[in-house]
From TrEMBL:
The lineage of its organism: unclassified sequences, metagenomes, ecological metagenomes. Gene3D superfamilies: 1.10.150.650. This is Polymerase/histidinol phosphatase N-terminal domain-containing protein. One of its GO terms (molecular function) is 5'-3' RNA exonuclease activity. It comes from marine sediment metagenome.
Amino acid sequence: AKRRNVDLMSTTDHDSIDCQERAMALAGRYGISYITGVELNVTFRYPGSKPVSLDFLGYRYDIGNQELKDKLQLMREHREDRARQILEKLNTEFDKENRGRFTEEDIKKIEDSVDGAFGRPHIANYLVEKGIVRNKQEAFDKYLVKCDVPKYPS
């Protein structure tokens, strides 16, 4: 950022503020002003229509806010549970296709590849890596849309 003459920046991650202290310190070291940031998924439910899901960026919050940290931790835990439920649904699909199932070792490899929130894009990458699909779009089209689990509890 410094080489590109950036003088103000923010870093956001889904449901996580874990990097904020380090990012603030690094920005300060290079004379860059820093704004705290987080990315949250927000679902609007309108009566009589499908829910609308949006990614919402939040800025300038107190990184020491324990209530925020606790809520983000609950969201990450749900995301991890959701990913495991999706993997179980994928195993059901793989059984129908007489294909090998995801093992605990596979799940561990996916988890180890994640820096932050575990979600469907990481599963899609693994499906490509294993040669089950040609690309991420095929992973979503063939498996991840039909094996979906709601993002957050109602």
